[in-house]
Sequence to fold (228 residues):
Amino acid sequence: EIVLTQSPGTLSLSPGERATLSCRASQSVSRNYLAWYQQKPGQAPRLLIYGTSNRATGIPDRFSGSGSGTDFTLTISRLEPEDFAVYYCQQYGSSPYTFGQGTKLEIK
Amino acid sequence: QVQLQESGPGLVKPSETLSLTCTVSGGSISSYYWNWIRQPPGKGLEWIGYIYYSGNTNYNPSLKSRVTISVDTSKNQFSLKLNSVTAADTAVYYCARAPPGGYYYYMDVWGKGTTVTVSS
Fold:
């Protein structure tokens, strides 16, 4: 099973700043099949990025993903108030499909 | 657009079977992979398993001995059964869709989730 470790656990930033979230895999993610989700309190996760760098339908272009192998990054170029939430990475290159423990992005 | 809605008991006794159903509306259940994911209170996400509309399944080995996922294409529904539950199975349970193709097991549509508590 691939273990995904996200860092930092909590990121405190202000609106307008740039956010960089990390997801590191315990082994190489097959075909770079890595996705990112955003979850707000009391809501289901929402797909942001799939295949490392492809934005899902309706996701603003301030969200971008990059990486390969074992190291992946989600970047939010200029934080909007609605971006403060918990973010999860998920690998779907090999079963069982696993999630990271999450990064909480909070307002500074 | 496609919407998913979970339904089932919110309270299950220890050692009994948790049963949930996900109803797919606004689209067909055909050609997609249908997943169950859970989230214990204050914790992260755990993939439970999926079923293809044809009936093929794949389960997380950590739960495989206790899980059954089934599909009813005539009702556009799929279901989860988890037996011999304990307090550790208390969680919000989500159903979610993964795209067709057989390789792309990311979740592009999610239900709102349903809370299941295991307690006597």
Observations:
- The radius of gyration of chain A is 13 Å.
- Chain A touches chain B at residues 1, 31, 33, 35, 37, 43-47, 50-51, 56-57, 88, 90, 92, 95-102 (CB under 8 Å).
- DSSP finds no helices and eleven strands in chain A.
